[in-house]
Amino acid sequence: xxxxxxxxxxxxxxxxxxxxxxxxxxxxxxxxxxxxxxxxxxxxxxxxxxxxxxxxxxxxxxxxxxxxxxxxxxxxxxxxxxxxxxxxxxxxxxx
Length: 95
What we know:
By secondary structure, the chain is mostly helical. It has helices at 26-40, 49-94, and strands spanning 6-10, 13-17.
């Protein structure tokens, strides 16, 4: 973890955070979080607890959907790897 802090704003609140050594910057994550808040914010732009919880629910749904896609891709890769291994084994047996 880096020693320096980064200042970001989410929903009008300023946070000073130390970034993790990840591929996405805190600024990128804050921008995405703000876009998710905007999806459920009314025309007044007021971010209430209800708005924050709705945004959280949307993000949770998105996370679970992406995790399921990831699991399905892994199952597909494992299945293909097994078929390749079986094919290679049959080719060795044929020689």
